[in-house]
Amino acid sequence: MNLIDRYVAEVGKNLPLLNGREDIEKELKSTLEDMLEDRAQSSGRKRDEALEIEVLKEYGSPQKVAATYNPHPYLIGPKMFPLYLFVLKIVLTVVVSVMLVLAGVQAVTDTPFMGADFVKIIGQGLGSALSAAIAAFGNVTLVFVILERVLPEKEIGGFNDEKDWDPASLAKEPDPDSVSRTELIFEIVFTFVALAILNVYPQWLGMFFFTENEQVFIPMFTEMFFQFVPWINVVLVSEILLDIYLLRNAIWSRLTRLGKVVIEAASLTLTVLIVRTPGIIAFSAESLANGPFPPEQAEVFVTIATYMFPIIMAIVIIIQSVELVKAVYRLFKMRSETK
Amino acid sequence: MANTESLENVVLELRRGVIVLAALSQLGLPEYGYSLLKKLADLGLDVDQGTLYPLLRRLETQGLLESVWKLEEARPRRYYVISAEGKKLLPKMKKEWAGIVSVMDKMLS
Fold first, then answer.
1. Segment A175-200 mean pLDDT
2. Tens digit of pLDDT for each residue in A247-282?
3. Last residue in a domain, options A99, A131, A158
4. Do A110 and A61 fall within a single domain?
5. pLDDT at A160
6. In chain A, whose CA is at the least distance from the CA of B72?
7. Could you tell me which of A35, A233, A263, B104 has the fewest CB atoms within 10 Å of its CB?
């Protein structure tokens, strides 16, 4: 195999996987032979390896030559890139948030506050959030790299579809009835996490205390609370179904606004019922006072148990009330506008 | 240094823009890659080989050129010639080019 053949074979190896590789190699060889012949004639030199080296150097490295035949110099092309960034932002935000929330929940429920284990779990949580983010980044990129190569050119249009773009859309004010996709995706993910904790990991709803030779778990709620779980499930599942429906339709309708009002009213009613049910909290001053930790620590927890739960529940009720008022206001505003 | 580089880039872009028209205009009769390169260079347009050969293949894929392998001087050569579709397009491209030249002349004079 002479130098020219080796060069042509090396270019062939670096060509993208497409039909016509052999044809390109054949044409390249023919061109190089023409160049050599021309160079030998015009310079009066004989065709030898030195002349071949000169011509090949001038032609460029095999990688560079192969790259000129590559119809896809991009991993993800400029047409697909905005959509790629859009999806990547959503996926990374959701993945990192879920991992951090899970780590936070685990740190709070499995360890005494601010102990060495607490810091360790938070550290591990940050580590897993980072590796999950890297994995998500890799997977999303891989999917788009494949789409870039599999989808026909017309389908890649995505965000840059000039023909479908209507400048009149710029003049309109933001539509109060359009839905925020990011918000909905967040809501679905967190509602799903809440469903999973309530039904699959109810043991997370409490606190683990570690002493030198034993591990004590004090649940946050009594059995009374778990009687409400089926009703909480109904509300949470309805919320997810409504969000998925909105995600598909991209716009609020009177029916979905009414659905939102019903769901907000149901969740507020449930919260009030839970708060008003006596003996629902297992995480009480008494249970903590009998816990396996030093008296001064117990005192802190007793204070937390006595004051924190009502405060937290009051905040939840206020937030839910505001959400209900907002949902009712939007429903009626929509009705008056359509009259 | 930076100025020379910018100038080189601009010149390269300008040339790249005219290569399609130049190649189509010179392929009324069949030419193989290297002969077309020499022909363009003789007429004063130096084109990089890495630009011209892939471009010829692309124009063939787009239906503006046709090609055929011929065995000559004991080696095969691929000859390109303008296709019927290319012939239809060429006058329109020439008209566009004349328009650009006239506009640029007005701007630069």
1. 83
2. 888 788 888 899 999 999 999 898 888 888 877 777
3. A158
4. no
5. 52
6. A30
7. B104
Shared domain check, A137 and A37:
no
Task: Tell me the DSSP string of A216-254.
Answer: EEEESB-HHHHTSHHHHHHHHHHHHHHHHHHHHH-B--H
A277 shares a domain with A202: yes
Bridge partners for B3 per DSSP? none
Q: Decide which of A41, A68, A95 is a domain's last residue.
A: A68
- The ipTM estimated for the assembled molecules is 0.84
**Which of A38, A59, A69 has the CB atom closest to B54's CB atom?**
A69
Name chain A contacts of B75, Cβ cutoff 8 Å.
Answer: 30, 33
Asked if A69 lies within 8 A of B32 by C-beta distance, the reply is no
A181-199 helix and A81-110 helix, angle to the nearest 10 degrees:
30
Token couple for B43 = 């007429």
Residues of chain B with C-beta less than 8 angstroms from the C-beta of A24: 57
Mean pLDDT computed over B40-48: 92
Question: What total of structural domains would you count in chain B?
Answer: 1
Two tokens, residue A246 = 């909105």
pLDDT digits (tens, 9 = 90+) for A2-32: 899 999 999 998 887 666 788 899 999 999 9
Three-state SS for B98?
helix
Q: Please report whether residue A176 resides in a domain.
A: no
In a domain, B50, yes or no: yes
B8-18: average pLDDT? 86
